[in-house]
Write a structure and sequence with these properties.
The chain is an alpha/beta fold and 366 residues long. The protein has 9 helices and 14 strands. The chain folds into 2 domains: 238 residues, Type I PLP-dependent aspartate aminotransferase-like (Major domain) (Aspartate Aminotransferase, domain 2, 3-Layer(aba) Sandwich); 101 residues, Aspartate Aminotransferase, domain 1 (Alpha-Beta Complex). The strands form 4 sheets. It has a 7-stranded mixed beta sheet with strand order 2-10-9-8-5-3-4, sandwiched between helices. Strands 11-12-14 form a 3-stranded antiparallel beta sheet.
Amino acid sequence: MTTTATHRALNFSAGPGVLPEEVLRQVQHDIWDLGGTGIGIMEHSHRAASYDRIIAEAIADCKKVGGIGDDYDVLFLTGGASTQNHMIPANLLPEGGTADYANTGYWARKTAEECQYYGKAHIAFDGKPSNYTFIPRQSELKFSASPAYFHYTSNNTIMGTEYHYVPQPPAGVPLVCDMCSDIYSRPFDVTKFGLIYAGAQKNLGPAGATVVIIRKDLLERSPRPLPTLLRYKPFAENESRPNTPPVFAIYVVGLVFKWILKQGGLKPIAERNQSKAKIIYDVIDATGFYTGHARDDSRSLMNISFRTPSPDTDKLFITEAKAEGMDNLKGHRSIGGIRASVYNAFPTEGCETFAQFMREFERKHG
C-alpha cells in the first residue's frame, strides 16, 4: 500500500529519516541547476556567492525556527552526533574535571563513555537496570558536587522514550542536550541550554551535517590545546567554513528550515506530531496484543518501539508490512521488536494507514 500521491513507500526509518516531499522536489531541480547558475548544488564551491547565501539563510532560518537570540551561534559540523560525544568534553571539561550524564539509552550510554577520554563521567541517572523503559523525573537526577556540565539525550531513538520536560542542572552548570531525534519537533526555550546538538538525518535533512547551537560564552572555554577542527570557535568565526563543509547536506537542512517555517513554525508541528503518535499508541493500548517498550509517561512522539506476542510474530509483522508498502520497521538489534519512526515530515495519513494495518494484522494473527 503505497502513498497514492507519489507512489512512494511509507518510510518508518529511524535515520536517515523521511524528508518533506516538496524539499525533495526542490532538491531534484537544484542538483541540476541551482538558482539559474547552470551549476548543480553538489558542484558549487563552498566559497561561491551562491553558497554564501545558502549558509547565511540556513543560519538565520535555524535561529528563526528555534527563537534563538544573538547570544548563541549556529554551527554546521561533520562527524555526526558521535563526534560531538568527544568534542563536547574536549571543549568544555577541564583537566581532572567531572561532567554529569543521564544514561537513558544506548546513545546516552555511548556519550558518557566518550567523556572518559578527557575526565570523569558521573552518571546522574542510570536507566540500565530497568532496560531503559522510562525517563527520570527531576528528583531522580543525582548530580555530582561540581559538574562542568550536565548532558542528557532528549529522545532515545532505540528505546522510544522522550523527555517531556527540560531537566534543570545545578545553578550555573551548562545544560547540554543531544536532540538528534526530536530537534525542532516541538517548541523549546533555548535559553535553558548551553549547547544543543543534532545529527541532521532524522528531523532536519540528510546524513552528513551536524547542527550545533552553542551559547557564545562557552566558545571561550579552552581547557586544553586542540586541533583547529576539534574546536567550536573556528567554526563560529568562519560561518562553519574553516574547511570545506558538507555543502549539499547543509543546503538541504536549510530547505527543511524553510519548510518548517512554511508549516507555521514549531507549535503546529508539535500539535501534528502529538496527533500522529496518538494514532499509533491508541492501537497499541487497545488490546494486549501489542506491547510498548516505553513506560506511558515517557513515550516518544518520534520513535514508537513495540512488539507483538513473539519474536516470530514480530518478523511476520515486518514482512507483511513491507509487502503493503511500509518499510524500515525492524527494531534496533539491542531490543528487537518493531519501531515506527514518525518524524516531522512523516504524513498523518501514513500513521492512519499503519494503524489500520496493525488492527488488521492483530485480527489475522491474534
